[in-house]
């Protein structure tokens, strides 16, 4: 099938082939638009423009569906661990049994340590610097320790690069947090699972009577591990969002892959992207009381008020975010099993959702709760500090960035990202 473009001024006709997608609408191949017609498209924010072909994840915004490698997100969250999803995104294969799953996870555990010189560099940052700034810098510095990844000639090289950063990102992230509060750095414990280690490195303190890097006891329940595992799975990949597109665009220059991922972290930091989960909880605290909800909802609808309700609406989803549905059930399940949410904030959040879902203003604009609306309250219940919410997002998303980056560099036809501009100056 082809599409014909007609220039009304010259009556010239230009034929463009369409690309059949396995899911979703077909695309017009405009890659030669300028060369053949002398004009180019104008699409601010790239809402109608595909910059790549991908097999990694797919979103159906109208139906509220999300798939990783063809698997619905609901199935992956219910049946598999986060490390299994990592294997799926990096190798196209889920573990076939528990042994395969453990082997992959053990590789990540053993790669989780970072060079002591890099740990010392974190002491140069101001303690009040946001952990996302330190994390982005730390990942960029990591490229100096593994400079050979700048040239990946084989699949083994690419897998080593990806597994190394997926393994080390929790260690780097928790160092950023502990540096902020002035606490001793806790090294990974390979006897603990990938997910448990994240909570361990956040919470543990060295025992004064123990030597050789051993740590005192810290309580981490299987329920907490399961909850964080599901949260990371829900954040593993999400199509060509702002940070993923940033990673691909930066990688297109031939830069070291960790520099591209560092750029993705900086993009994710924004409050309109990954930083929204932090803003949601801050906003619930600002509302302060369930009796104030109507007042804040009215502010949202006031065109003269700049107030925006965080955690509602999505650039792609025009129905209920499937990740938000899962997190809402997870929150209720955790409460039923004894994990305590902040009762005041939970009451406010429930009231905000109740009012918004019945209000014509929100219904007409397809403003439904998104993943950020519930993730913050759950992370808070897991004793994870608010300033660490977005770094948790980074931990979950790093594997998606790696999968996207590898897909990009393995494409022989890929070109450096170079959008056009509509020049309207003098």
Mind explaining what this structure looks like?
The chain is mainly alpha-helical and 426 residues long. The protein has two domains: 2-67, Rubrerythrin, domain 2; 74-426, Citrate Synthase, domain 1 (Orthogonal Bundle), CATH 1.10.580.10. Helices cover 51% and strands 6% of the residues. The chain has helices at 33-37, 73-79, 82-91, 98-110, 116-121, 131-145, 155-181, 194-203, 222-234, 242-251, 257-268, 276-287, 293-301, 322-336, 343-358, 360-364, 371-381, 389-409, and strands at residues 2-6, 13-19, 27-28, 57-60, 65-68, 71-72. The chain has a three-stranded antiparallel sheet. A three-stranded antiparallel sheet has the order 4-5-6. Strand 5 and strand 6 (71-72) form a beta hairpin. Helix 4 crosses helix 7 (155-181) and helix 10 (242-251) packs across helix 18. It is globular.
Name the features.
426 residues; mainly alpha; Rubrerythrin, domain 2; Citrate Synthase, domain 1; 3-stranded antiparallel beta sheet
């Amino acid at each position: 099938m082809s599409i014909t473009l007609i220039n009304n001024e010259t009556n010239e006709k230009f034929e463009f082939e369409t690309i059949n997608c396995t899911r979703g609408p077909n695309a017009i191949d405009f890659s030669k638009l300028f060369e053949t017609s002398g004009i180019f498209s104008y699409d601010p924010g790239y809402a109608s423009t595909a910059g790549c072909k991908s097999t990694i994840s797919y979103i159906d915004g109208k139906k509220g569906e999300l798939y990783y490698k063809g698997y619905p997100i609901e199935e992956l969250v219910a049946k598999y661990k986060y490390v299994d999803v990592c294997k799926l995104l990096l190798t196209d294969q889920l573990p076939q049994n528990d042994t395969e799953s453990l082997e992959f996870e053990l590789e990540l555990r053993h790669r989780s340590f970072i060079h002591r010189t890099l740990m010392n560099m974190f002491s140069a940052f101001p303690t009040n610097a946001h952990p996302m700034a330190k994390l982005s810098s730390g990942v960029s510095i990591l490229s100096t320790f593994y400079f050979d990844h700048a040239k990946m000639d084989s699949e083994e090289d690419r897998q080593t690069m990806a597994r190394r950063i997926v393994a080390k990102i929790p260690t780097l992230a928790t160092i950023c947090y502990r540096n902020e509060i002035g606490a001793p750095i806790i090294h990974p414990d390979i006897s603990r699972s990938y997910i448990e280690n994240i909570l361990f490195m956040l919470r543990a303190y060295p025992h004064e009577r123990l030597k050789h890097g051993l740590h005192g006891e810290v309580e981490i329940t299987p329920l907490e591990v399961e909850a964080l595992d599901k949260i990371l799975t829900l954040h593993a990949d999400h199509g060509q969002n702002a940070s993923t597109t940033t990673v691909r665009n930066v990688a297109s220059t031939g830069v070291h892959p960790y520099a591209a991922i560092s750029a993705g972290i900086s993009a994710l930091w924004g409050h309109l992207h990954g930083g929204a989960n932090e803003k949601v909880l801050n906003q619930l605290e600002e509302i302060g009381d369930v009796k104030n909800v109507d007042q804040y909802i009215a502010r949202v609808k006031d065109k003269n008020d700049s107030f925006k309700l965080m955690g509602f609406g999505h650039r792609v989803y025009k129905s209920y975010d499937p990740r938000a549905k899962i997190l809402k059930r997870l929150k209720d399940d955790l409460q039923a099993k004894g994990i305590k949410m902040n009762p005041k904030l939970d009451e406010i959040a429930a009231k905000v959702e109740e009012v918004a879902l019945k209000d014509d203003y929100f219904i007409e604009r397809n403003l439904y709760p998104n993943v950020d609306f519930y993730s913050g309250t759950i992370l808070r219940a897991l004793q994870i500090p608010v300033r660490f919410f977005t770094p948790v997002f980074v931990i979950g998303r790093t594997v998606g960035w790696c999968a996207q980056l590898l897909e990009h560099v393995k494409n022989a036809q890929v070109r450096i990202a170079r959008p056009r501009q509509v020049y309207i100056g003098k």
